[in-house]
Every structure is written in structure tokens, then in C-alpha cells.
Design brief:
The protein has five helices and three strands; from the N terminus they run E-H-E-H-H-E-H-H. The protein is α/β, with parallel strands linked by helices. It has a three-stranded parallel beta sheet. Helix 1 links the parallel strand 1 and strand 2. The longest helix has 22 residues.
Length: 131
């Protein structure tokens, strides 16, 4: 298992990206954590907890009712992304270690986890509280 949170493409020059390692280690579970994912228009940007809290919407539901958006007291985007990473890694390891039981059994996987995606997923039920 390998977990990395370098900027997208940062490990490629060393041959330590998933593509560079999967041939030698086909059962590798490789988790890339970035601000905005490994592809897409914002993938090249760095992502920080404070920025992701604002972009992901959590700051809109904290603080005083008539006040400005407010950061959650802890680095919640980082914490929640770490929890999603742990669950994803455990699932990938189980999948790898039980060939034939699941779709990709016996193979490693590349997990692409973005702070912004995790933050959005964490707020999935918020609109229900408004209605």
C-alpha cells in the first residue's frame, strides 16, 4: 500500500506514480490524495483545508446565522478526506485479497481521492435539513 498527497504529477519524474509502479507491483493499492483529483481543470492546483472548506460549502453552515461564512474549528476537510481514504484503502485491500469474489479481485488499484469531493460528500444530506 502507498499513500501520497503530492501535487498531481509530482511523483512521475521519480517513477513513483501509479503508472510507474503498477508493472513491478501489480497488487499495489495506491492512494493519491489531492485538492481536486488527478484529472480535470483544477487538478494542477494545490488544495488546502481552509480553501476546500470554503469551496465545498461547509463554511456556509457554520458561524452566526446572519454572519459571514466561518471556518470549522478543526481541519475538517483534511480529517474527513483521511477517513474516506482509510475506508477506500481497506475496501481495495479486501478486493485484492479475495480474487473472484469482487470485480477486480486479485489486482491492485489506484484510488483517486480529492479533498473537494470528500467535503461535498460529507454535506450530501444538508439540503434535507433546510426543507
Amino acid at each position: 500500500m502507498l499513500i501520497e498527497n503530492y501535487k498531481v504529477g509530482g511523483l512521475k519524474k521519480y517513477g513513483l506514480d501509479y503508472a510507474g509502479m503498477k508493472e513491478e507491483f501489480p497488487d499495489l493499492v495506491y492512494c493519491s490524495i489531492s485538492g481536486f483529483g488527478q484529472s480535470g481543470p483544477k487538478s494542477h492546483r494545490a488544495g488546502y483545508d481552509f480553501m476546500i472548506q470554503a469551496m465545498g460549502g461547509i463554511m456556509s453552515v457554520t458561524g452566526e446565522a446572519d454572519g459571514s461564512p466561518m471556518k470549522v474549528g478543526v481541519g475538517i476537510a483534511d480529517v474527513m478526506c483521511g477517513m474516506y481514504a482509510a475506508i477506500s484503502i481497506l475496501s481495495a485491500i479486501r478486493n485484492r485479497d479475495h480474487p473472484g469474489k469482487f470485480d477486480a479481485g486479485g489486482n491492485g488499484q489506484h484510488i483517486d481521492l480529492a479533498l473537494l469531493d470528500s467535503q461535498a460528500a460529507w454535506l450530501i444530506n444538508f439540503p434535507d435539513q433546510i426543507i
